[in-house]
Structures are given as structure tokens and as C-alpha cells.
């Protein structure tokens, strides 16, 4: 705590309170006010997370900035918050993206402005809650609540097929969540009435129960990541979501699922995690190779980037389940980097969509002639997606591949195919959209990015390059926590 | 940090600063300032390299860290420099050729709208290439490796509105990625086996693992062999070795200055440099060396053949580059690493010269590249003519010119090698001498001698760049005469012609047979005695030259030149006759052995088909159709059945409840 402020609570409740304030501005006549309030809330929400990094003690894996008070004493439920070297990064990442989506929706959203912006602010607070919760009930509440704003954002401001996509998104994720709830209730009973996640980490669990719990958690988390074969909601959700929704979905929501694996599955049921690691590795490799191939023939830019996301998240789940430091840290780095890169790519697609009202690759061609500055950004982020050294995309991929060689050369062989497939689908899209002669009068009429868009893409370009050239600050902070997690997971709990 | 360390940093950073200024602020600072600042900074880089060279010659080498990039477990991944004789040689070559190309660009790109962007790219390239050669670890090597690939991608597609250019750059990137795929896995194996990516630490421990089996399930290879072959796959991509050579000819879509800088003198030699740098590894694996040698031999000979039938001036030179890269690779395979680097250096000068001279011709011809529309140019552009002739003579290995010493040494080294495949390699490099001389002088005669074919109204039929979209294609108007290009264009030609002539004679003794590379290249003279035997037979450059006049390669080259003279100047109808008689060979060559067609069919469209199938059947039909929407339909079905029971009549519900209670009671009593 800095100056006695409960930072984690602030990072959760500040955006939510500002979200409610924004809602209070009412209808679209007050849209300018709503935008300003939302911007202030988003920036404040980010600022309060900065001390989390600066004052973080890198030497310990214990939870920091802990807040603990009773919530529902009858069921022993606590308001228990805290972050370690892993979750702190995601609280910051999430808060970092909130101002960006507010800027992204600044001029573009003209209907129900207050509600749109409030949705993102509230969601930002809820997601921080997910990352900071150390109480299972608190976690579950945030976890489920987080779905609601996203469901509304897709369902109200989305594309023509938004209702199908929103319901598919909701059902898919809700289905998994229910199983997780059952697992949590079982743990509550077994632990003698505790909802403390840290307590779950310590308590012994028999193998059969471990496997069942693992499967239940898997259903919840794999859907969110998403892992093959429960990934098909993501392309639909992305295609229908407004730009801001896609950005948050890709940059933040997917990370929640992966985070679940390392906060719940692996430490709570380590033996089952080892026992089922082969399946996880297989599904991850399928995600990388199969989805990488599927991305190649996508004709919709958002679908293409969505499939690319699934493929890249395969690195994350693989990195976790090879149980070594390279893989684990690489996976975490990949999660952050993927947030930057895919978020930026969705923003780029949004920039084009706002002008042309199509995401069809075939409707483009020769954008570079008309939007040179945009094209430079687009190529940069595409290179990030390709995993070129010097961009953030390389760091995580490199670490996971290095970690995987240690486990089995052939896994790494399959994994490294992303070098080719990733370049093929990304750069083929770039070729058809950005390069070439001006394809049609609509492209001819394009204008280059505005100051607002430059600001957005510029900030993300700096993060992508900065993380690529100097990733040490990102890994330094997670180092101790990852090592302790690996030690913990290596110990049997039977 | 000492002064020298600051100087080391200055070498790569100066061009980077230039690239940033020209790239981000090019429109603000203007064209003149952009080229002035980038040229100045590359010149600074070159001068600094000269100082470092003198320092290294005085015995001061360096191996140290600039900053730590990442912690990987207990392994520290760093950005650092290794400055030794090999590095400093590469630094000199890269900065010198880059400086020449920067100057030349003022003339070549004068009318181009993307002027500042071009300077930014070539400066960025210079930075990347310097980071590559100055690296002291595999990670940074890979950084530079990919960064030069990126700039190559951007520069091949520099004229991004041309369909051929953006096809070529995508192809170049993807083919290179295939190589990088192997390269990265090789690095992964190194990290796994040695626990470090630092060159010095790896080389120090290499003998410990020399006889281990590779940790690859199902494969019983020696670990060093596996590592070397994987690394060499990376080199095959970057240095365009068979069968990953397919991107280089197409890369000629880029502006000529970068063909000289990237696709002849520097980037494509990165693979050669890398293998030479890894000599302590490669020396331990005869299998890998054999593989390297045979790959190089195939490239040297078969790519040379293709140069014979090309009509685009740049493509002839491009195939010649492929063939010469093959020569360097053969030398590597024969454990003659220093010879490969020697040829890399001489080739950098004369091939950059040839490309830039070709560019000068292209300017004079108003962007016509078909050599059948040239001829007799020597009258109009004497400087270009003389320098081009010098370049060609150096290329074919004329005694006293630089190419002679490097190429003859390669042939000699292969002849003395005992590795499997060395017999074929020897034949390939010998035959290659004839082929090289033939296509080089075919080009030379068609361009600079014979009848003037330019200035005619012609409807293009040349090469791949013959489309009307190409706004750079003008051609000379009928009756218009070409004239010599401005000084910014010919000055670099002259400056490159000088080392092309003399550098071989001057440096062969210290470089190949002295101690120049003693700190950076390792050869196991017991197992691979070629170099030692050559040293034994070497009695000074003059003796070598005189001996060369009586040796087979010289006469082969002479025969090649003579045949070109007969075919293309004396009796120009012979080639057409041969072409008709052996039309199948011509078709085979014209289709480049069908590699491009095969790749397009098998890899490009094959991958797209597989992709489409997986998507339609896997995602849409199976997962979404059957499982997701299927379960939704199932729920719908059950609810529609159940809906019939919901009649709304109280007595129906009451009846159901009574039946239910009855059933429950029955079950209860049954199990009591």
C-alpha cells in the first residue's frame, strides 16, 4: 500500500465507479461529457497500477499488496486481494488497455456513447478483480460478472450477426464456468470450509479427484484461452464485436483463461496436471499447426487475426505444460506480447473498417499509396505477429521454443512451424491489403490516420518495440514467482 | 567503457541514427539532407571500422556485453560484440560497399518519390548487417539474421505497387523463413546441449559433446552433425543455396542499388559468414561438411547454367551471384573457411561493381533491362564499360584480378579435400568456371559490343518486369542515344573497380596462408589437410599467378570467353540454332528446373487447399456444425418434445404427479 491506499481495490473499484458515473451522464446529448469522464477514469485506473510495478518486491513469490477482510462470514468468504509476480503484470496490462479502448471509441461510437464507455470501464475493474482475487468466491463473482459487459458490448454495438455471436460467446464460456463452480464447491467441502485459493494450493487431494477437478477447470479455462477444439466462438465474437471489444477480447479476455491454468489448475492439482500434460501439449500443438493453417485462407481480416490469436495462444498453453522456466516465462511473455500485437492489429483493422465499412481482404489493395503512415504501423504490427526479433512477438515464441527443445525436439519442430505459417498468413494479408496498386475507388478515397489514431498506434508501436528490444523488465518481475510455482508444481499432493 | 568500446558501438549505431532520421523525419528534413546525413553517418561507420581494423591488427580483440536482453533460467541472453579479425573484415566490407551504394543511390533513385524511405532502408540494413557480423552470441546473430531479412523484404517490395515486386518480397521472406526454421531449431539444440548461446563458451566446450548422440527422439545422429545441419539450413535460406535458392532471382524486382548491396555483396553472404564463424562446430562433423560441400556444388554449377539463357541484365548477374555463393559454400565444405571469406570479400567488390554498373546501364537505357535491346554501349558510356569489363574479368578469374586468387584457391582446396562428395564438387567448380566465363561475356558482348539495338520501338518481351504497370519502364526513344551517367553513379564504380582489381593479389598471402584468421577460424589440419597442403604449395602471389596461366581453370575460362565471342559477336545465329536443336534443355532452363512451378503448386496452393479443407471440415462442419450447433439443436429438440407435455391443464399435471409419487413409492419399497 502506498500512502495507505489499497491499490488493488482502487484498481478494481475506481474504473467501476467511473463507469457508473459515465452511465449517469445519461443519453447521447451528454456524450462529450461521458467521453471526458471515461477518459479520466481510465487514466486514473492506469495510474494507480503503476506503483504496483514500482513498489513490487521482486525477491519474493509471496502475495503482495494484500487486502483481507471478511465478506460473508457465514460461509467463510473473504474479500481477499493480492498479486504475485505473475498476476501483477496482467493487472497493469489490463489497466493500460482501458485508456486505449476509450480513445479508440472516441469518435467512432456515436450511439449510446455513455453506455459503451461505461461497459469498458466496468469490465476493466472486473478483470482486475479476476487477476487480484485470492478468494474463490470473489474470483468466481468477478469471473462471471466480467462476461456481462462483454456480452452487452458485442450484442449492442456489434455487427449484423451480433446476437448469434454474443450468445455463442456467452454459452460457451458459461458452460465451462459452471463446471469450475462445481470444482470450487468440492474444494470448499474438502478443505473443511475454506474459499482461500492459497489454502487450496497447499491441501492434499487424491488422484481421481485431482483429475476430475482438472477437467472441470479445463472446461472453464480452455474455452477462454481458447484452446482447440473449443475455440470456434472466438472468430465469430471477433468478427461481430466493435473494434474496442475485439481489442479487449484479444488483449485481455484470452489471458484470463491462461491465467486460470497457472493460478488454479497447476498449483491446486499438480499431479493431474503432470498426468494430463501430454493431452495439453497435443491440443496446444494442434492449435499452433492446425489453426495456423486454417488462418491462411480466411477472407475476413478479423477472422484471420482471430485464428492467428488462437494459434499464438497455443504457445502459451504449451509453455505452461512443459513445466520448465523457459516455457513458463515464455508463455507469460507471449501472453503480454500477444496483448500488444493483436490489440494493435485489431485497432488497425478498425481504422480501415471505420473508413471502408468492410473487413473483407478482397475489398482492399494498395492502401499503402493512400495511407502511408498507417501502412508503416500495420507492417510493424504484422511483423510483431510474425514474431520478428526486435518486436515483442519474438520474445515469447523464442523462449517457448527453446523450452520445448528441452522436452522433445519434435514438439519444437511442430511449434517452430509458426515461423513459416505465421509469416505466410500475416504477410499474405499485408500483401493483399497494403501493397499493390490502388484496387478500387473506395481505396482511392482513403485518408491517412488522424492524430487520435496516430496516438493509439504510436503508443502500441513503442510497447511492441520496447518489449522486443528490452524484455528484461518484464521477466525480472515474474522470475521468483515462476520459479516457486514450478517448484510447487513439481511436488506431489497425493 | 573504453574509447574502443565506444567506437564499436558507433559502428552500428551511426547508420541506425541515419535510418531513423531519414525514415521518420525524411519529409521534414528533405531529400538532400536525408541523403547527406545517411551518407555521412555510414562514412563515419566506415572510418570507425578502419580504426578498429588497425586496433585489431595491433592485437586488440574484444568480446563483451553491451546489455542484457533476457534471463532464461540461469542463462543470460545478451547483446554483445565479438571483435576479431573475421568481424573486422566483414565490417570493412559491409560499410565500404554500403557507402558506395549510398552515394550511388543519389543518382539511381533521383526521380523516385520514395527517396528518403530508400535511404532509411539501406541505412537500416547496414545497421542490421553490422549487428549480425559483430555479434558474440547466437541470439544476436538471429536478430541480425532476421533483421536483414526484414529490410530485404521491404526493399524488394520497395516499389510496392508492382505485383511482381510484392510477389517477390513475400516469396523471399517465406523461403528465408524456411531456412530460419532450421536455424532456430539449431540454436535451440545448442542452448539445450551447451546451456549457453555465447560463441566463446560454446566453442570452448564443443569437444566435450563431440561424440554425443543428438537429443532428438528417434534419430541417432551425432549432436554436432545435427546442430551443424540445422544451422546450415538457415544459411541455405539466407545465402540462397539449392533448393532454397528460388527467392534470389526474383529479388531483382528491387531497385538495383540494393541488389548490389543486399543481394550480392552482403546479406546473402551472411550464411557463408555464419558457417565460417561456426568453424569450431563444423570441423567436428564430416557429415555436415559433406552436406555443405555438395549443396554448394549443386548451386555453383546448376545455377550457373540458368545464367546462360537469361535476357534481363540483372537476372544474369543474379544467377551469377547464386553460382558464386555456391563456390563459397563449396569452400566451406572443404574446410577452407578462410578461402570462402576471401572469395566473399573479392566477390563483394566485383559483384557490387557489376550490379551497380548494370544499374548504370539501366539508367542510360531509361529503365530497359533486356540485353537484347542494348548493344554497342561502350561508345556511349566508357566509364561504365571499362568498370563492367573489370568486374567481369575479375568474376571469371582472370590472373592478377581479385577473383582469380579466391576462385583458384577454392578449386585447389576442393581438389585436396577427401570428404565424400568432393569429387563431384571438384567437377562442379571446374565446369562452373567455363559456364561463368560464358554467361559473363555473353552479357558483356551483348551489352557493350555488337550492333546497337536500343532506341527501337519494341513491345517488351523481356524477363518478368515487362508489364505496363511499371512506371519506371520508358526505354530510349527511337534515335535517342544513351550517355554516361552522372558522377555520383560512376564514382562508386571506379572506387569498387580498384579493389576488384588489386585486392586479391595483395591479401591472399596474409589471409589464406598467414595468421590473419588464427583467432577466429578453426581448422582441424589433421582431419582436413587441404589448407595445410595448399600453404605448402604456395610460393607467393606472383608464382601462383604464373602457375595459374598454365592451369586448367584459366583455359576453361578463356574457352568460355571465346565461345561467347563466337556465339554472340562472330556468328550470332548459332545460339538460336542450338536452342532449336536442344529445345528441351532450353525449356528446362527457362523454367528454372521447374522449381518455381513446383513450389507454387505444391507449397503455395497446396497449403491453401489444405487450409481451406481443414477450416471447412474441421471448424465449420465438425466443431461448429456437429458439436456446437448440434448440441443447440439437441436442446431445441428435447424442449420441443417436452413442450407437448406442457398442456396447461391442471388435471394433466395432477395425473403426472400421482403417477410420479406412485413410481417413487414403488422404487422405495422395492429396495427396502
TrEMBL record, chain A:
Residue ranges constituting the NADH:quinone oxidoreductase/Mrp antiporter transmembrane domain according to the UniProt record: 134-418
This protein's UniProt keywords: Membrane, Transmembrane, Transmembrane helix
Protein name: NADH-quinone oxidoreductase subunit M
Superkingdom of the source species: Bacteria
One term under GO cellular component: endomembrane system
Organism: Candidatus Nitrotoga fabula
Location(s), subcellular: Endomembrane system; Membrane
PANTHER family: NADH-UBIQUINONE OXIDOREDUCTASE CHAIN 4
A family per Pfam: Proton_antipo_M
One BP annotation, GO: ATP synthesis coupled electron transport
Entry's Gene Ontology molecular function annotations: NADH dehydrogenase (ubiquinone) activity; NADH dehydrogenase activity; ubiquinone binding
Family: Belongs to the complex I subunit 4 family.
Regions crossing the membrane: 6-24, 36-54, 86-106, 113-131, 137-157, 169-189, 209-234, 246-264, 276-297, 304-326, 332-353, 374-396, 408-428, 455-472
Protein topology in the membrane: Multi-pass membrane protein
Keyword Membrane listed: yes
TrEMBL record, chain B:
Gene Ontology BP terms: ATP synthesis coupled electron transport; electron transport coupled proton transport
NADH:quinone oxidoreductase/Mrp antiporter transmembrane domain sequence ranges: 135-419
Molecular function via GO: NADH dehydrogenase (ubiquinone) activity; NADH dehydrogenase activity
Segments traversing the membrane: 6-25, 32-53, 86-106, 118-135, 141-160, 181-199, 219-237, 258-276, 288-309, 316-342, 348-368, 380-404, 424-445, 487-508, 552-569, 650-671
Location in the cell: Endomembrane system; Membrane
Keywords: Membrane, Transmembrane, Transmembrane helix
Chain positions covered by the region annotation Disordered: 459-480
UniProt GO cellular component terms: endomembrane system; membrane
Pfam families found in the cross-reference section: Proton_antipo_M (PF00361), Proton_antipo_N (PF00662)
Compositionally biased region (Basic and acidic residues): 459-474
Protein name according to UniProt: NADH-quinone oxidoreductase subunit L
Amino acid at each position: 500500500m502506498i500512502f495507505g491506499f489499497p491499490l488493488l481495490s482502487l484498481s478494481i473499484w475506481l474504473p467501476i465507479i467511473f463507469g457508473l458515473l459515465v452511465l449517469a451522464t445519461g443519453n447521447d446529448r451528454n456524450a462529450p461529457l461521458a467521453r471526458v469522464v471515461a477518459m479520466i477514469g481510465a487514466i486514473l485506473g492506469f495510474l494507480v497500477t503503476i506503483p504496483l510495478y514500482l513498489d513490487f518486491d521482486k525477491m519474493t513469490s509471496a502475495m503482495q499488496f494484500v487486502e483481507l477482510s471478511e465478506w460473508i462470514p457465514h460461509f467463510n468468504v473473504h474479500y481477499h486481494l493480492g498479486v504475485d509476480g505473475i498476476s501483477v503484470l496482467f493487472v497493469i496490462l489490463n489497466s493500460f488497455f482501458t485508456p486505449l479502448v476509450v480513445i479508440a471509441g472516441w469518435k467512432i461510437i456515436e450511439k449510446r456513447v455513455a453506455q459503451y464507455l461505461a461497459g469498458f470501464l466496468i469490465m476493466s475493474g472486473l478483470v482486475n478483480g479476476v487477476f487480484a482475487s485470492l478468494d474463490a468466491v470473489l474470483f468466481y463473482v468477478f469471473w462471471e460478472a466480467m462476461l456481462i459487459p462483454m456480452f452487452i458490448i458485442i450484442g449492442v454495438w456489434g455487427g449484423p450477426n451480433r446476437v448469434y455471436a454474443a450468445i455463442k460467446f456467452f454459452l460457451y464460456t458459461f458452460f465451462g464456468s459452471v463446471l469450475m463452480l462445481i470444482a470450487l464447491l468440492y474444494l470448499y467441502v474438502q478443505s473443511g470450509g475454506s474459499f482461500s485459493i492459497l489454502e487450496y494450493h497447499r491441501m492434499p487431494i487424491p488422484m481421481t479427484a485431482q483429475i476430475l477437478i482438472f477437467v472441470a477447470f479445463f472446461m472453464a479455462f480452455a474455452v477462454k484461452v481458447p484452446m482447440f477444439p473449443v475455440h470456434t466462438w472466438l472468430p465469430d465474437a471477433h468478427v461481430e464485436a466493435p473494434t474496442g471489444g475485439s481489442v479487449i477480447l484479444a488483449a485481455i479476455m484470452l489471458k484470463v483463461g491462461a491465467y486460470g491454468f497457472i493460478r488454479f489448475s497447476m498449483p491446486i492439482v499438480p499431479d493431474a496436471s503432470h498426468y494430463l500434460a501430454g493431452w495439453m501439449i497435443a491440443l496446444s500443438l494442434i492449435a499452433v499447426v492446425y489453426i495456423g493453417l486454417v488462418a491462411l485462407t480466411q477472407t475476413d481480416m478479423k477472422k484471420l487475426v482471430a485464428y492467428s490469436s488462437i494459434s499464438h495462444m497455443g504457445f502459451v498453453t504449451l509453455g505452461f505444460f512443459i513445466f520448465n522456466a523457459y516455457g513458463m516465462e515464455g508463455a507469460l511473455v507471449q501472453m503480454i506480447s500477444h496483448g500488444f500485437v493483436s490489440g494493435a492489429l485489431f485497432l488497425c483493422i478498425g481504422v480501415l473498417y471505420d473508413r471502408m465499412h468492410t473487413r473483407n481482404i478482397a475489398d482492399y489493395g494498395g492502401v499503402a499509396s493512400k495511407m502511408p503512415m498507417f501502412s508503416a504501423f500495420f507492417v510493424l504490427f504484422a511483423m510483431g505477429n510474425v514474431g520478428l526479433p526486435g518486436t515483442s512477438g519474438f520474445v515469447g515464441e523464442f523462449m517457448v521454443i527453446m523450452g520445448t527443445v528441452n522436452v522433445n525436439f519434435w514438439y519444437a519442430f511442430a511449434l517452430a512451424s509458426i515461423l513459416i505459417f505465421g509469416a505466410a498468413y500475416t504477410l499474405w494479408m499485408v500483401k493483399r491489403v497494403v501493397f499493390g496498386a490502388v484496387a478500387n475507388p473506395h481505396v482511392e478515397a482513403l485518408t491517412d490516420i488522424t492524430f487520435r489514431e496516430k496516438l493509439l498506434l504510436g503508443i502500441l508501436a513503442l510497447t511492441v518495440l520496447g518489449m522486443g528490444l528490452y524484455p528484461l523488465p518484464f521477466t525480472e518481475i515474474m522470475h521468483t514467482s515462476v520459479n516457486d510455482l514450478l517448484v510447487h508444481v513439481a511436488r506431489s499432493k497425493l | 567503457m573504453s574509447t574502443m568500446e565506444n567506437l564499436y558501438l558507433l559502428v552500428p549505431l551511426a547508420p541506425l541514427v541515419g535510418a531513423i532520421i531519414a525514415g521518420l523525419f525524411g519529409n521534414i528534413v528533405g531529400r538532400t539532407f536525408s541523403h547527406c546525413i545517411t551518407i555521412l553517418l555510414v562514412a563515419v561507420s566506415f572510418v570507425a571500422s578502419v580504426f578498429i581494423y588497425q586496433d585489431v591488427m595491433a592485437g586488440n580483440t574484444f568480446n563483451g556485453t553491451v546489455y542484457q536482453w533476457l534471463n532464461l533460467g540461469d542463462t543470460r541472453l545478451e547483446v554483445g560484440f565479438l571483435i576479431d579479425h573475421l568481424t573486422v573484415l566483414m565490417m570493412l566490407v559491409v560499410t565500404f560497399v554500403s557507402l558506395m551504394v549510398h552515394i550511388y543511390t543519389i543518382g539511381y533513385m533521383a526521380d523516385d518519390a520514395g527517396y528518403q524511405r530508400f535511404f532509411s532502408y539501406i541505412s537500416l540494413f547496414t545497421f542490421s548487417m553490422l549487428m549480425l557480423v559483430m555479434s558474440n552470441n547466437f541470439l544476436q546473430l538471429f536478430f541480425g539474421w532476421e533483421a536483414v531479412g526484414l529490410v530485404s523484404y521491404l526493399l524488394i517490395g520497395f516499389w510496392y505497387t508492382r505485383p511482381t515486386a510484392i510477389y517477390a518480397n513475400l516469396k523471399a521472406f517465406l523461403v528465408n523463413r524456411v531456412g530460419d526454421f532450421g536455424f532456430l531449431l539449431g540454436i535451440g539444440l545448442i542452448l539445450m546441449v551447451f546451456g549457453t548461446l555465447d560463441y566463446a563458451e560454446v566453442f570452448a566446450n564443443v569437444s566435450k559433446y563431440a561424440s554425443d548422440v543428438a537429443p532428438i527422439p528417434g534419430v541417432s545422429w551425432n549432436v554436432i552433425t545435427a546442430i551443424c545441419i540445422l544451422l546450415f539450413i538457415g544459411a541455405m535460406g539466407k545465402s540462397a543455396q539449392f533448393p532454397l535458392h528460388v527467392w534470389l532471382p526474383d529479388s531483382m524486382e528491387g531497385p538495383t542499388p540494393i541488389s548490389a548491396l543486399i543481394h550480392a555483396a552482403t546479406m546473402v553472404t551472411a550464411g557463408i559468414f555464419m558457417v565460417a564463424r561456426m568453424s569450431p562446430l563444423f570441423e567436428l562433423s564430416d557429415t555436415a561438411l559433406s552436406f555443405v560441400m555438395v549443396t554448394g556444388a549443386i548451386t555453383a554449377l546448376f545455377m550457373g547454367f540458368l545464367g546462360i539463357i537469361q535476357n534481363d541484365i540483372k537476372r544474369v548477374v543474379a544467377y551469377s551471384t547464386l553460382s558464386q555463393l555456391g563456390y563459397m559454400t563449396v569452400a566451406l565444405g572443404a574446410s577452407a573457411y578462410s578461402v570462402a571469406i576471401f572469395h566473399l570479400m573479392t566477390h563483394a567488390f566485383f559483384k557490387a561493381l557489376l550490379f551497380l554498373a548494370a544499374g548504370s546501364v539501366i539508367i542510360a537505357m531509361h529503365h530497359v533491362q533486356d540485353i537484347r535491346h542494348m548493344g554497342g554501349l561502350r561508345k556511349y558510356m566508357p566509364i561504365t564499360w571499362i568498370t563492367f569489363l573489370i568486374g567481369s574479368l575479375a568474376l571469371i578469374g582472370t590472373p592478377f584480378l581479385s577473383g582469380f586468387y579466391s576462385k583458384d584457391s577454392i578449386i585447389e582446396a576442393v581438389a585436396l579435400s577427401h570428404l565424400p562428395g568432393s569429387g563431384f564438387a571438384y567437377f562442379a567448380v571446374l565446369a562452373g568456371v567455363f559456364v561463368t566465363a560464358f554467361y559473363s561475356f555473353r552479357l558483356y558482348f551483348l551489352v557493350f559490343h555488337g550492333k546497337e539495338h536500343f532506341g527501337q520501338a519494341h513491345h517488351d518481351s523481356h524477363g518478368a518486369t515487362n508489364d505496363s504497370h511499371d512506371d519506371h519502364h520508358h526505354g530510349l526513344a527511337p534515335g535517342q542515344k544513351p550517355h554516361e551517367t552522372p558522377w555520383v553513379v560512376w564514382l562508386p564504380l571506379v572506387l569498387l573497380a580498384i579493389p576488384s582489381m588489386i585486392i586479391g593479389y595483395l591479401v591472399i598471402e596474409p589471409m589464406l596462408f598467414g595468421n590473419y584468421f588464427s583467432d577466429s577460424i578453426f581448422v582441424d589440419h589433421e582431419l582436413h589437410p587441404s589448407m595445410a597442403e595448399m600453404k605448402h604449395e604456395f610460393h607467393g602471389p606472383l608464382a601462383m599467378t604464373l602457375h595459374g596461366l598454365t592451369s586448367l581453370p584459366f583455359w576453361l575460362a578463356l574457352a568460355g570467353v571465346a565461345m561467347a565471342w563466337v556465339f554472340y559477336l562472330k556468328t550470332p545465329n548459332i545460339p538460336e540454332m542450338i536452342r532449336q536443336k536442344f529445345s528441351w534443355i532450353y525449356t528446362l532452363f527457362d523454367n528454372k528446373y521447374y522449381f518455381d512451378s513446383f513450389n507454387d503448386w505444391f507449397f503455395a496452393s497446396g497449403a491453401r487447399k489444405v487450409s481451406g479443407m481443414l477450416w471447412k471440415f474441421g471448424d465449420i462442419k465438425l466443431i461448429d456444425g456437429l458439436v456446437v450447433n448440434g448440441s443447440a439443436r439437441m436442446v431445441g429438440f428435447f424442449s420441443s418434445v417436452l413442450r407437448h407435455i406442457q398442456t396447461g391443464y391442471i388435471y394433466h399435471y395432477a395425473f403426472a404427479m400421482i403417477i410420479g409419487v406412485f413410481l417413487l413409492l414403488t422404487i422405495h419399497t422395492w429396495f427396502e
